[in-house]
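Key result, reporting period 2: structure in, sequence out.
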């Protein structure tokens, strides 16, 4: 599917609108069109197909429940659904770290240097950092993880979390201050 093609976006908008009206056939078609892309997002984050497929079902339950909340003027339909998928994946990684792959959920360019978790894994601070991250409010935790472990910009994070960019910057700033204090850096 060419997610940037106007006809595809128009169809997805129509399907979300009809899903908001509890049209099951529209929802089935929406699933058919969007599931492969959402599964790809989930797999990049959790790296386990069974867990990604389970989360995909959860995503579509949320899409069904929140279809009336989608506003085309605020963004593309696949971006809206993708945000749901990313949030489900991130929540799953924080709630059940044992279910996630033992590899860190990092999406960096391997040629760009050392990955943060790879460097930390050699140090005792890894467990401390994980504990410190768990104590952050969800929005701050998601923001700092998306920024530092996934390389997302403030603007991208704002789009993912559906919050203003300035708010995201504040969350990240407070999260980093908390982490520095908590880890003792």
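The corresponding designed sequence is given below.
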């Amino acid at each position: 599917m060419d997610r940037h093609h106007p006809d595809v976006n128009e169809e997805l908008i129509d399907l979300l609108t009809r899903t908001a009206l509890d049209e099951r056939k529209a929802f089935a078609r929406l699933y058919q069109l969007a599931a492969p892309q959402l599964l790809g997002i989930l797999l990049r984050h959790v790296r386990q197909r069974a867990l990604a497929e389970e989360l995909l079902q959860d995503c579509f339950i949320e899409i069904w429940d929140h279809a009336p909340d989608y506003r085309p003027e605020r963004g593309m339909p696949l971006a809206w659904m993708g945000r749901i998928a990313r949030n489900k994946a991130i929540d799953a990684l924080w709630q059940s770290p044992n279910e996630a792959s033992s590899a860190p959920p990092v999406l960096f360019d391997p040629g760009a240097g050392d990955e943060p978790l790879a460097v930390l894994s050699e140090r005792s601070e890894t467990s401390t950092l994980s504990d410190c991250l768990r104590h952050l409010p969800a929005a701050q935790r998601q923001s700092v993880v998306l920024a530092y472990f996934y390389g997302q910009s403030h603007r991208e994070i704002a789009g993912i979390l559906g919050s203003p960019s300035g708010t995201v910057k504040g969350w990240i700033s407070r999260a980093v201050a908390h982490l520095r204090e908590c880890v003792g850096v």
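DSSP finds nine helices and no strands in the chain. The two ends are 46 Å apart (CA to CA). This case is discussed further under Risks and Mitigation.
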